[in-house]
Amino acid sequence: MTTVSDQELLYFVTALKNHSEYDLTDYSEKSLKRRLQKVLVDHKTDLLGLITRLKKDKFFLNRIINDITVNTTELFRDPQIWHTLRYRILPQFKNRKNVNIWHAGCSSGQEVYSLLILLNELGLFDSAKILATDLNPDVLDQAAKGVYKYRFNIGYLDNFDKVIKENPYNFEEHYEVPYEKYFQVNKTKDTINMNQFLVDKPFFRRHDLVVDGNMMFAKFDIILCRNVIIYFNYDLQNRVFKLFHENLFNEGILILGMHETILGPFASKFEKKGMYYVKV
Ligand SMILES: C[S@@+](CC[C@H](N)C(=O)[O-])C[C@H]1O[C@@H](n2cnc3c(N)ncnc32)[C@H](O)[C@@H]1O
Protein backbone atom coordinates (compact mmCIF):
# COMPACT_ATOMS: atom_id res chain seq x y z
CA MET A 1 0.00 0.00 0.00
CA THR A 2 1.25 3.51 -0.82
CA THR A 3 1.83 5.91 2.04
CA VAL A 4 -0.86 8.36 3.16
CA SER A 5 -0.53 11.61 1.17
CA ASP A 6 -0.88 15.17 2.52
CA GLN A 7 -4.27 15.44 0.83
CA GLU A 8 -5.55 12.18 2.29
CA LEU A 9 -4.44 13.21 5.76
CA LEU A 10 -6.21 16.56 5.39
CA TYR A 11 -9.37 14.77 4.21
CA PHE A 12 -9.28 12.44 7.22
CA VAL A 13 -8.60 15.19 9.77
CA THR A 14 -11.31 17.44 8.29
CA ALA A 15 -13.89 14.63 8.27
CA LEU A 16 -13.05 13.82 11.89
CA LYS A 17 -13.35 17.45 12.89
CA ASN A 18 -16.71 17.85 11.13
CA HIS A 19 -18.27 14.64 12.38
CA SER A 20 -16.86 14.09 15.86
CA GLU A 21 -15.59 15.98 18.89
CA TYR A 22 -11.98 15.24 17.92
CA ASP A 23 -9.69 17.81 16.30
CA LEU A 24 -6.34 16.46 15.18
CA THR A 25 -5.57 19.46 12.92
CA ASP A 26 -2.49 20.50 14.87
CA TYR A 27 -1.04 17.09 15.58
CA SER A 28 2.36 16.31 14.13
CA GLU A 29 1.78 15.15 10.54
CA LYS A 30 4.53 12.58 10.42
CA SER A 31 3.18 10.56 13.31
CA LEU A 32 -0.46 10.95 12.18
CA LYS A 33 0.33 9.68 8.68
CA ARG A 34 2.15 6.66 10.05
CA ARG A 35 -0.67 5.78 12.43
CA LEU A 36 -3.40 6.34 9.83
CA GLN A 37 -1.57 4.10 7.41
CA LYS A 38 -1.43 1.34 10.03
CA VAL A 39 -5.15 1.76 10.82
CA LEU A 40 -6.04 1.36 7.14
CA VAL A 41 -3.94 -1.78 6.84
CA ASP A 42 -5.17 -3.30 10.14
CA HIS A 43 -8.83 -2.69 9.24
CA LYS A 44 -8.34 -3.74 5.61
CA THR A 45 -10.13 -0.63 4.41
CA ASP A 46 -9.54 2.50 2.36
CA LEU A 47 -9.94 6.06 3.58
CA LEU A 48 -13.51 6.45 2.33
CA GLY A 49 -14.58 3.18 3.99
CA LEU A 50 -12.94 4.23 7.24
CA ILE A 51 -14.60 7.64 7.32
CA THR A 52 -18.05 6.25 6.43
CA ARG A 53 -17.85 3.86 9.38
CA LEU A 54 -16.44 6.48 11.77
CA LYS A 55 -19.42 8.72 11.08
CA LYS A 56 -22.01 6.21 12.23
CA ASP A 57 -20.27 4.03 14.82
CA LYS A 58 -19.20 5.81 18.03
CA PHE A 59 -17.40 2.74 19.46
CA PHE A 60 -15.43 2.38 16.25
CA LEU A 61 -14.59 6.08 16.37
CA ASN A 62 -13.15 5.77 19.87
CA ARG A 63 -11.22 2.70 18.84
CA ILE A 64 -9.68 4.50 15.88
CA ILE A 65 -8.80 7.49 18.07
CA ASN A 66 -7.17 4.99 20.38
CA ASP A 67 -5.11 3.63 17.47
CA ILE A 68 -4.24 7.03 16.03
CA THR A 69 -3.16 8.62 19.30
CA VAL A 70 -0.41 6.69 21.02
CA ASN A 71 -1.35 5.34 24.47
CA THR A 72 1.90 3.65 25.45
CA THR A 73 2.65 4.03 29.14
CA GLU A 74 4.00 2.02 32.06
CA LEU A 75 4.35 2.04 35.83
CA PHE A 76 7.31 4.27 36.80
CA ARG A 77 8.17 4.87 33.14
CA ASP A 78 11.66 6.48 33.04
CA PRO A 79 12.71 5.82 36.66
CA GLN A 80 14.99 8.93 36.70
CA ILE A 81 12.05 11.32 36.68
CA TRP A 82 10.41 9.37 39.52
CA HIS A 83 13.61 9.65 41.52
CA THR A 84 13.57 13.41 40.88
CA LEU A 85 9.96 13.56 42.05
CA ARG A 86 10.69 11.50 45.12
CA TYR A 87 13.89 13.18 46.30
CA ARG A 88 13.74 16.69 44.79
CA ILE A 89 10.18 17.76 44.01
CA LEU A 90 7.68 16.16 46.38
CA PRO A 91 9.64 16.83 49.61
CA GLN A 92 9.03 20.58 48.92
CA PHE A 93 5.34 19.92 49.69
CA LYS A 94 5.88 18.15 53.03
CA ASN A 95 4.38 20.89 55.17
CA ARG A 96 1.56 21.86 52.87
CA LYS A 97 -2.09 21.25 53.72
CA ASN A 98 -3.05 20.62 50.08
CA VAL A 99 -1.15 19.53 47.01
CA ASN A 100 -3.11 19.81 43.77
CA ILE A 101 -1.87 17.64 40.94
CA TRP A 102 -3.08 17.31 37.35
CA HIS A 103 -2.04 14.44 35.06
CA ALA A 104 -2.89 15.65 31.54
CA GLY A 105 -2.90 12.81 29.00
CA CYS A 106 -2.79 10.12 31.68
CA SER A 107 -3.62 7.24 29.30
CA SER A 108 -4.55 4.04 31.17
CA GLY A 109 -3.40 5.43 34.52
CA GLN A 110 -0.02 3.84 35.25
CA GLU A 111 1.58 7.27 35.64
CA VAL A 112 -1.14 8.26 38.11
CA TYR A 113 -0.62 5.13 40.23
CA SER A 114 3.16 5.67 40.15
CA LEU A 115 2.72 9.11 41.66
CA LEU A 116 0.18 7.90 44.22
CA ILE A 117 2.68 5.28 45.41
CA LEU A 118 5.35 7.96 45.86
CA LEU A 119 2.92 10.27 47.65
CA ASN A 120 2.07 7.47 50.04
CA GLU A 121 5.73 6.64 50.69
CA LEU A 122 6.34 10.32 51.51
CA GLY A 123 3.30 10.75 53.77
CA LEU A 124 1.64 13.13 51.28
CA PHE A 125 -1.19 10.86 50.19
CA ASP A 126 -3.96 12.47 52.26
CA SER A 127 -3.07 16.05 51.38
CA ALA A 128 -2.97 15.34 47.64
CA LYS A 129 -5.85 15.98 45.26
CA ILE A 130 -5.39 14.24 41.95
CA LEU A 131 -7.09 15.09 38.67
CA ALA A 132 -6.24 12.74 35.81
CA THR A 133 -7.48 13.49 32.30
CA ASP A 134 -7.24 12.14 28.79
CA LEU A 135 -9.16 12.68 25.57
CA ASN A 136 -9.85 8.98 25.17
CA PRO A 137 -12.71 7.49 27.24
CA ASP A 138 -11.50 3.91 26.70
CA VAL A 139 -8.12 4.48 28.37
CA LEU A 140 -9.81 6.40 31.19
CA ASP A 141 -12.08 3.40 31.87
CA GLN A 142 -9.03 1.22 32.22
CA ALA A 143 -7.30 3.80 34.39
CA ALA A 144 -10.27 3.94 36.76
CA LYS A 145 -10.14 0.13 37.16
CA GLY A 146 -6.40 -0.04 37.76
CA VAL A 147 -6.08 -3.54 36.31
CA TYR A 148 -3.27 -4.39 33.88
CA LYS A 149 -2.04 -7.48 32.06
CA TYR A 150 0.83 -9.12 33.91
CA ARG A 151 2.40 -10.88 30.92
CA PHE A 152 3.03 -7.67 28.97
CA ASN A 153 4.04 -5.65 32.01
CA ILE A 154 6.49 -7.74 34.00
CA GLY A 155 8.86 -4.75 33.76
CA TYR A 156 6.63 -2.87 36.24
CA LEU A 157 8.17 -4.91 39.05
CA ASP A 158 11.72 -3.90 38.10
CA ASN A 159 10.69 -0.26 37.80
CA PHE A 160 9.01 -0.43 41.21
CA ASP A 161 12.17 -1.83 42.82
CA LYS A 162 14.36 0.76 41.12
CA VAL A 163 12.24 3.72 42.21
CA ILE A 164 10.95 2.59 45.58
CA LYS A 165 13.82 0.54 46.98
CA GLU A 166 16.86 2.44 45.67
CA ASN A 167 18.09 5.97 46.25
CA PRO A 168 20.48 7.09 43.49
CA TYR A 169 21.39 10.17 45.57
CA ASN A 170 22.47 8.02 48.51
CA PHE A 171 23.41 4.42 47.70
CA GLU A 172 23.59 3.52 51.39
CA GLU A 173 19.85 3.93 51.68
CA HIS A 174 17.69 0.94 50.77
CA TYR A 175 14.00 0.55 51.49
CA GLU A 176 12.39 -2.85 51.82
CA VAL A 177 8.95 -2.15 50.41
CA PRO A 178 7.05 -5.18 49.07
CA TYR A 179 5.05 -4.36 45.94
CA GLU A 180 1.99 -6.00 47.56
CA LYS A 181 1.64 -2.85 49.61
CA TYR A 182 0.41 -1.22 46.38
CA PHE A 183 -0.64 -3.90 43.89
CA GLN A 184 -1.33 -7.60 43.59
CA VAL A 185 0.08 -9.86 40.89
CA ASN A 186 -1.99 -12.87 39.86
CA LYS A 187 0.03 -14.91 37.38
CA THR A 188 -2.79 -17.41 36.74
CA LYS A 189 -5.27 -14.68 35.88
CA ASP A 190 -2.49 -12.70 34.19
CA THR A 191 -3.34 -9.54 36.10
CA ILE A 192 -1.74 -6.73 38.07
CA ASN A 193 -4.41 -5.12 40.28
CA MET A 194 -3.79 -1.80 41.96
CA ASN A 195 -4.89 -1.86 45.61
CA GLN A 196 -8.28 -0.33 46.27
CA PHE A 197 -7.04 2.65 48.31
CA LEU A 198 -5.06 3.78 45.25
CA VAL A 199 -7.92 3.17 42.81
CA ASP A 200 -10.29 5.22 44.98
CA LYS A 201 -8.08 8.29 45.15
CA PRO A 202 -7.85 10.03 41.74
CA PHE A 203 -10.62 11.85 39.93
CA PHE A 204 -10.53 10.63 36.31
CA ARG A 205 -12.23 12.82 33.78
CA ARG A 206 -12.33 13.24 30.01
CA HIS A 207 -10.56 16.39 28.88
CA ASP A 208 -9.22 17.20 25.44
CA LEU A 209 -6.25 19.57 25.57
CA VAL A 210 -7.08 20.82 22.06
CA VAL A 211 -10.80 21.53 22.12
CA ASP A 212 -11.75 21.75 25.80
CA GLY A 213 -9.19 24.38 26.75
CA ASN A 214 -9.42 25.75 30.24
CA MET A 215 -12.12 23.88 32.16
CA MET A 216 -10.28 23.71 35.43
CA PHE A 217 -11.79 25.18 38.56
CA ALA A 218 -8.64 25.07 40.64
CA LYS A 219 -4.99 25.86 40.16
CA PHE A 220 -2.33 23.21 40.43
CA ASP A 221 0.96 22.81 42.27
CA ILE A 222 2.18 20.16 39.85
CA ILE A 223 1.12 19.33 36.30
CA LEU A 224 2.44 16.20 34.64
CA CYS A 225 1.99 16.02 30.88
CA ARG A 226 4.41 13.42 29.69
CA ASN A 227 4.78 12.06 26.19
CA VAL A 228 1.74 13.94 24.90
CA ILE A 229 2.98 17.17 23.30
CA ILE A 230 5.50 15.18 21.28
CA TYR A 231 2.53 14.38 19.00
CA PHE A 232 1.54 18.07 18.64
CA ASN A 233 2.89 20.68 16.23
CA TYR A 234 4.64 23.86 17.43
CA ASP A 235 1.46 26.00 17.53
CA LEU A 236 -0.52 23.48 19.50
CA GLN A 237 2.39 22.94 21.89
CA ASN A 238 2.37 26.67 22.62
CA ARG A 239 -1.38 26.67 23.24
CA VAL A 240 -0.95 23.84 25.69
CA PHE A 241 1.96 25.56 27.47
CA LYS A 242 -0.28 28.63 27.83
CA LEU A 243 -3.02 26.46 29.33
CA PHE A 244 -0.58 24.92 31.81
CA HIS A 245 0.91 28.31 32.69
CA GLU A 246 -2.58 29.68 33.45
CA ASN A 247 -3.46 26.66 35.56
CA LEU A 248 -0.32 26.53 37.69
CA PHE A 249 0.20 28.45 40.90
CA ASN A 250 3.24 30.73 40.88
CA GLU A 251 6.31 28.51 41.25
CA GLY A 252 4.13 25.55 40.26
CA ILE A 253 5.92 22.64 38.63
CA LEU A 254 5.47 21.27 35.11
CA ILE A 255 6.83 17.86 34.21
CA LEU A 256 7.08 16.88 30.55
CA GLY A 257 8.36 13.68 28.93
CA MET A 258 12.09 12.96 28.78
CA HIS A 259 12.28 14.10 25.15
CA GLU A 260 9.97 17.09 25.39
CA THR A 261 11.09 20.71 25.84
CA ILE A 262 9.45 24.11 26.04
CA LEU A 263 10.51 26.14 23.01
CA GLY A 264 9.10 29.46 21.78
CA PRO A 265 7.38 32.23 23.75
CA PHE A 266 6.74 30.15 26.88
CA ALA A 267 10.39 29.24 27.36
CA SER A 268 10.88 32.50 29.28
CA LYS A 269 7.80 31.91 31.44
CA PHE A 270 9.17 28.71 32.91
CA GLU A 271 12.56 28.11 34.50
CA LYS A 272 14.10 24.76 33.62
CA LYS A 273 15.48 22.94 36.63
CA GLY A 274 17.04 19.71 35.40
CA MET A 275 14.18 17.42 34.50
CA TYR A 276 11.32 19.77 35.35
CA TYR A 277 10.04 23.32 34.81
CA VAL A 278 8.99 25.92 37.37
CA LYS A 279 6.48 28.65 36.53
CA VAL A 280 8.10 32.09 36.86
C1 LIG B 1 1.88 8.21 25.04
S1 LIG B 1 0.52 8.47 26.11
C2 LIG B 1 1.32 9.11 27.51
C3 LIG B 1 0.79 8.54 28.80
C4 LIG B 1 1.51 8.97 30.06
N1 LIG B 1 1.44 10.41 30.24
C5 LIG B 1 2.96 8.51 30.04
O1 LIG B 1 3.85 9.31 29.72
O2 LIG B 1 3.25 7.36 30.34
C6 LIG B 1 -0.25 9.88 25.36
C7 LIG B 1 -1.67 10.12 25.86
O3 LIG B 1 -2.08 11.42 25.45
C8 LIG B 1 -3.45 11.39 25.14
N2 LIG B 1 -3.79 12.53 24.30
C9 LIG B 1 -3.50 12.73 22.99
N3 LIG B 1 -4.05 13.88 22.56
C10 LIG B 1 -4.68 14.43 23.62
C11 LIG B 1 -5.45 15.60 23.80
N4 LIG B 1 -5.68 16.43 22.80
N5 LIG B 1 -5.98 15.85 25.01
C12 LIG B 1 -5.77 15.00 26.06
N6 LIG B 1 -5.07 13.86 25.94
C13 LIG B 1 -4.52 13.57 24.73
C14 LIG B 1 -3.63 10.05 24.44
O4 LIG B 1 -4.98 9.62 24.45
C15 LIG B 1 -2.70 9.15 25.26
O5 LIG B 1 -3.40 8.48 26.25
Helix content: 25-40%
Largest sheet: 7 strands, mixed
Supply the helix-strand structural class: alpha/beta
* Element string (H = helix, E = strand): HHHHHEHEHEHEEHEEHEEE
Summarize the entry for a quick read:
With 280 residues, the protein is α/β, with parallel strands linked by helices. It is globular, with a radius of gyration of 20 Å.
Report on the structure:
The protein has 280 residues and is of the alpha/beta class. The protein has 10 helices and 10 strands. The strands form 2 sheets. Strands 6-2-1-7-8-10-9 form a 7-stranded mixed beta sheet. Strands 3-5-4 form a 3-stranded antiparallel beta sheet. β7, α10 and β8 form a beta-alpha-beta unit. The protein binds S-adenosylmethionine (SAM). The site of S-adenosylmethionine has 21 residues, from loops.
Identify the notable features of this structure and list them briefly:
alpha/beta, 280 residues, 18% strand, binds S-adenosylmethionine, single chain
How would you summarize the topology of this molecule?
Blueprint (H helix, E strand, L loop, with lengths): L5 H14 L9 H14 L4 H10 L1 H11 L10 H11 L9 E6 L5 H12 L6 E7 L2 H9 L1 E3 L5 H11 L17 E4 L4 E4 L1 H4 L3 E4 L13 E6 L8 H14 E9 L13 E4 L2 E4 L1
The protein binds S-adenosylmethionine (SAM).
The site of S-adenosylmethionine (SAM) has 21 residues, from loops.
